[in-house]
Specification:
Elements lengths: L1 H8 L5 H23 L6 H12 L4 H20 L3 H20 L18 H16 L6 H8 L1
Helix pairs in contact: 2-3, 2-4, 2-6, 3-4, 4-5, 5-6
Pfam family, one: DoxX
Main location: membrane
Family: Belongs to the DoxX family.
């Protein structure tokens, strides 16, 4: 079991892994902090859980996982810890968000405020970055690399 975990942490020591995981983490962290802590005008944990479970009718476990992936996943990706796991979970999250909230608004983001909501192009970019991190791992300066080298 220990060796299976270590194998999933093995990563290329390249810049692509570093750049992709930092891009994902830095972009997702403010969203997670809004949902968990109420920073940057967010509703905080209670408000977000209430919105997800009552207004969007999501099961509480799914609502909780969205908050956890966006906050703890972002921090873990920034640190390069369990990069492949958090990348896979972020892909699942992005697909879920697209189909639950953005598909009806088309491809393009709402740059000029002339449509009812945001399109899904942002999530396509995030899925692409997550696929890079899923394939390459955490890259340079990742906690995954440090853990593997200690074994």
């Amino acid at each position: 079991m220990k060796m299976k975990i270590i194998r999933t942490l093995q990563t290329d020591s390249d810049w692509a892994g570093l750049v992709s995981r930092l891009s994902i983490g830095i972009v997702f962290f403010p969203h997670g902090a809004q949902k968990l802590l109420g920073w940057w005008g967010g509703y905080g944990f209670s408000g977000t859980m209430d919105f997800f479970t009552n207004a969007m009718n999501l099961p509480w476990l799914i609502a909780f996982m969205v908050i956890a992936i966006e906050f703890f996943g972002a921090l873990s990706l920034i640190a390069g810890f369990a990069t492949r796991l958090w990348s896979a979970l972020t892909i699942i999250l992005c697909i879920g968000v697209v189909f639950s909230s953005h598909l009806e608004h088309g491809f393009f983001m709402n740059w000029f405020g002339n449509q009812q909501g945001e399109g899904y192009e942002f999530f396509i970019l995030m899925i692409g970055l997550c696929i890079v991190s899923l394939i390459n791992g955490g890259g340079k300066y990742s906690a995954d690399n440090i853990i593997v080298k200690m074994q």
